[in-house]
Amino acid sequence: MKVYFIGAGPGEPELITVKGKRLLEEADIIIYAGSLVNPEILKYAKKDAAVFDSASMSLDEILKIMVDGVKDGKIVARLHTGDTSLYSAIAEQMAELKKAGIGFEIIPGVSSASAAAASLNIEYTLPEITQTVIYTRIAGRTDVPAAEKLSSLAAHNSTMVIFLSVQKIKEVVDELLKGYSPDTPAAVVYKASWKDERIVKGLLKDIADKVKDEKINKTALIIVGRVLDKDILKIAKKSKLYDKGFEHGYRKAVVEK
Ligand code: SAH
To answer: How many helices (H) and strands (E) in the chain?
Structure first.
């Protein structure tokens, strides 16, 4: 038996992977991050599964449930919001499980960053506009390394997806304006994929006020970059992938006569 770290997806219960759902159905013990994971997803759990909300628990308490559970021959599902690879604090849990000799496996999930792009009907990477997405956050109780100041990252003018920072949107914008033009499109997606999802669109120069007016101060992503411009496809080059004249491993080029 082992611990399964499962990316629960951004909110909408169907946005968990098939494998994640199956393990949730089989789990004897479920520990979910109640501050962000949509509890609706627990409908997939067995009736007699023991369910814990980790929101009010310490790392030690979480670990004890996991370790005792696996030693007892139970399947433990540890649910994290979105994808497990981003701001989920699974690293410290894995380190402790390793020390305790407890096996684990990670089942990735759909990040809120992906869900937000879907809700906005955008692609984060467009040919010749940007081929880079920066996932970052502003410093809060958790520090951010000095080399990753928003103002430094802004110099690239890539697409940026900013987690855990909407409560400081004014500060975020002030930093970003050191690298992006004030007319760069920006959007805030609150609770992407949830029933009460909300989207605020604007420009870097007015997004902070719009978000304050909407009283959004948690569970939201700030997205910045030219890919949000509704007319961007008039400028962006088409990708080579479906270009008739471009040959790749799966398709021969069509030579125009
Ligand atoms: N692992 C998660 C991120 C966890 S950090 C993921 O891949 O999405 C928590 C932060 O993620 C929140 O402060 C917010 O910025 C963002 N977030 C999580 N779920 C969200 C959602 N449904 N919509 C918008 N932002 C979300």
So the answer is: 8, 10
